[in-house]
């Protein structure tokens, strides 16, 4: 499912106009992104949690050429599914 399919499903299920459903879904994702940028952890009970992990820089190799490459430190979003979601998927 992609974002547009999620918007359509919300609009159909809750009898919303597609523009209103778009605003709801966009506000939801924007809130999560804003919280992660600020360094907060986002937890949705029964679904999972999002957080940002910091990774140190390191010296790597380009697999194609074998050249040494310096990889810069980075911050990446990380999702951990909740217990209820894992159980739902596996039942």
What does this structure look like?
The chain is an alpha+beta fold and about 90 residues long. The chain has one domain (about 5-90): HU Protein, Chain A. It has three helices and five strands. A three-stranded antiparallel beta sheet has the order 1-2-5. Helix 1 packs across helix 2 (about 20-35). The longest helix has 20 residues, at about 20-35. The two termini are about 20 Å apart.
Key descriptive features of the protein:
alpha+beta, three-stranded antiparallel sheet, two-stranded antiparallel ribbon
Which helices and strands appear, and what pairs or packs with what?
Layout: H1 3-14, H2 18-37, E1 42-44, E2 48-55, E3 58-61, E4 68-71, E5 74-81, H3 83-90
Antiparallel strand pairs: 1-2, 2-5, 3-4
**Through-space gap between termini:** 20 Å
Oligomer: single chain
Strand order of the largest sheet: 1-2-5
Structural class of the helix and strand makeup? alpha+beta
- Tell me, rounded to a whole number, the average pLDDT: 96
* Overall number of strands: 5
The SSE order reads HHEEEEEH
Strand portion? 25-35%
Count up the helices: 3
By CATH, the architecture is named Irregular
């Amino acid at each position: 499912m992609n974002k547009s399919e999620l918007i359509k499903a919300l609009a159909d299920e809750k009898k919303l106009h597609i523009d209103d459903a778009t605003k709801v879904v966009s506000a939801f994702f924007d809130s999560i992104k804003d919280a992660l940028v600020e360094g907060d952890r986002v937890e949705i009970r029964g679904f999972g949690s999002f957080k940002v992990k910091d990774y140190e820089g390191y010296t790597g190799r380009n697999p194609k050429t074998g050249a040494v490459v310096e990889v810069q430190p980075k911050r990446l979003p990380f999702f951990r599914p909740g217990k209820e979601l894992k159980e739902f998927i596996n039942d």
